[in-house]
Amino acid sequence: MPSNVNPTVRRRRLGQELRRLRELKGMTAEEVAERLLVSQSKISRLENGRRSISQRDVRDLCGVYEVEDHRIVDSLMQMAKDSRQQGWWHAFGDIPYSVYIGLETDAESLRVYEPQMVPGLLQTRAYAEALISGALPEAPPSDIEKRVNVRSRRQDRVNAPENPLRLWAVIDESALRRVVGDKQVMIEQLEHLVEQSHLPHVTVQVLPFEMGAHPGINGQYAILEFPDAADSSVVYIEGVTSDLYLEKANDVQRYSVMYEHLRAQALNVEQTREFISKIAKSYTS
């Protein structure tokens, strides 16, 4: 385990290894849960990396799986210890989508489709403040500020001088037409979007209304890919009260194919810049 891998990714890798050991033993999650007198959902959460795992959990599971090599047990115990460390986002307090932030922080590339808003990694501060305030009308100002600060911190991956996140964003025209904040906020946001699109590792495409129905009509999603082959790609779908993470190869493949169709139907890079600039100019009238 590299020392710079964040705790979210540590939990994913540890969960994958525990699942592998269970499958080698030929046991179901239900059988393991019965042996340990815990719920089946706990075993599932430990294996998918969504739950913090203790060294005691690892010890108990290795006992059930009859792992005799002490080096393997010690390695897994160390991974469990490392996975309980805190990522940079914990300094901001309770963040509902902290699992996603952990994945995004370690991702090598991100493909995102946004039908209603400018992607968070490409938002200006003023746009983010207006957007979050509108989405959470009952949230106190301190909570709004915290979320905006976290979003700003996440953007460091895009603007990093070394090893920046490779970002591909397909944005629906409605996200450019919806006035978030006021017209001046939108002008600055759209100009920023064009500016960011010139970065060599950032690609922005707009899906105009005239394209009609398309594969992304059902809503937003993102596909995260990682530099280590041991880390499977993840499809992230944001929800109001809970989020969905898809890691099965068939699911990732299906969403990847959908994304290729979205890319094909969207305006190309140059057309997109002209299109965004035209809308920005319309806000000055």
UniProtKB/TrEMBL annotation:
Residue intervals of the HTH cro/C1-type domain? 18-73
Pfam families listed in its UniProt record:
DUF5753, HTH_31
Q: Which SUPFAM superfamilies match?
A: lambda repressor-like DNA-binding domains
What's an example of a GO molecular-function annotation for this chain?
DNA binding
User: Which keywords fit this entry according to its UniProt record?
Assistant: DNA-binding
Q: What is this protein called?
A: Cro/C1-type DNA-binding domain-containing protein SCO4441
Q: Species name for this entry?
A: Streptomyces globisporus
Q: Which PROSITE patterns match?
A: HTH_CROC1
